[in-house]
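Question thread 4412

I'm putting together a teaching handout and wanted feedback from people who do this every day. The idea is simple: show students a protein as raw sequence, then show them the structure tokens that encode its fold, then repeat with a second protein so they can compare. Below is the first pair exactly as I plan to print it.
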Amino acid sequence: MIAVEQARGELPAPARALDLSDDQARAEKVAAERRRRVQWQNLGVRIVSLAIALALWQLVGGNIDPILFTTPTAVAKAAVEMVWNGELWSYLWPSLIVLGIGLALAIVLGIGIGLLLARFRILDVAFTVYITFLYSIPSVALVPLIVLWAGFETAAKVTILFLFAFFPMVINTYQGVKTVDPKLLEVGRAFRCTERQLWGHIVLPAALPFIVTGLRLAVGQALIGVFVAELSGATNGVGMLMNNAGQQFQTSVVFAGLFIFALTGVVLTGLLRAVEQRFAAWRPKL
């Protein structure tokens, strides 16, 4: 009987379902292979691009006065020497402590305050003007006051870093919640969702892309805050290392410090992307 149906081009429902599942599995396999191929291609392009950039840098830097510019080999040599004698870690560790504390405070308070201001109209009307007022003041202009009040130790550096990273976090979180479709909230209320359920199932998922963008901006601003804080008379940190090296015309050490900040930003951004993929798996992958 099945042979007759196959001859007519007709298959039983279970057979059709099995055939569709096989087609879907093959399509997913092909898509996965395509993604892996694209990833390897991207990696190859980045490696070639990096090699070309380093070669050009080496060529141009070798023809410039070492006091004014440097080369990748000189930067690598200076970094290896600092790692070998332990000098790099002694400067890096205080910077990482300040970065961790200040950035954590900025993230927690920025997200919390942004959510509250966006969801409750009274708080929005009462306090948003203060956020706008403080954000309009250049954070660098507050550094002398913070140093005057808190000195040059860790508390002052954490405060300076917090001011740099807090506002991108709170503004992006606020904007993300404000852009939630009111119809989604109406549907949630129609199904008698509690406020907690609205936050967990509608508000936070919809605002997550804005929050992640705020996190990325906050990381960049936090690194700037670390550098500014350690230039303002600090007694330790990578910023102080770069400042001292610049005064002694050690250009290679200055570039090594720049690369430390850059690599720190790359690592933190990579971690944020991993977190975004974990908590926003529903979003389409680009």
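The second pair follows. I'd like the answer to focus on this one:
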Amino acid sequence: MTRYRVSHATTYEYDEPVSSSYSRLHLLPSDLPGQRCLESAIAVSPAPEDRREHRDYFGNRVEYVAVQAPHRELTITGTSVVDVDRPGGTPLFGQRPWEEARDAASRAGSGATHVEAVQFALDSPRVRASAELADYARPSFAPGRPIAEAVVDLASRIHRDFEFVPGVTQVDTPVEEVFAGRRGVCQDFAHVGIACLRSLGIPARYVSGYLETDPPPGRPKLVGADVSHAWLSVLVPGAGWLDVDPTNDQVANDRYVVAAIGRDYGDVAPINGVVYTRATTQRLTVQVDVTAVDALATTA
């Protein structure tokens, strides 16, 4: 088990005053299998006139904040302390043939498991199934191949075939465009993987969170070197959800902290908001730090 302190700070700067801003935040980790949130808080400057926390449809913790005083800068910082005990590797039930696992998910009945499976097998606003994506996925899904092995192979192929290039896509870039260009960032690779799986009828969901990253060899960890991350999760009947990271070509382990889960990025964006202003220029600064608590104690 590893304990992490996570900080996600976002600052918006405007060239003219903003009269008011309203934000919906997915910055508070939940308790999940393999994860326990010990502390969490969101600080907002200027102080909001209204703030509320609730659970969304997918069970994520969401905070709504309304800043109604004029301001030219808005800073939102989410901090949390999280215990993670996720060994990585594939589950025992992951040895089931992928066709059997797919069919078992669709036959789960009318209960909560069936509803969960169906909602993540259907198209969502940013992820649509297609014959082209099914064709790309099929080499990984040979007849009778174990579901976990097939999913891991698909993630590895995306890792090899797609180039990580920040700035070439936006949060609303269609998955078809990412697939055609073979370039993007972690959220794009997660969307491609999810679209491939759904194109074969396999339930898959989008995971937003954080990953503890290594510093360059021989150099200390840099403050702000981490970024918010995204990966995908596949339903394995009898074993739950298997998290796979195509960006880093690995099964999620105890270095991954889950912030929110949804159908695609649109469900779980860290910050969604509306501002009222005449400003034409906005500067956005994001700093994310994921630090093992033991490392903090050693360097304090």
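Top answer:
Good format. For the second protein you could add a caption like this: Residues 22 and 66 are 5 Å apart (CA to CA). The chain has two domains: 2-84+269-299, 92-266.
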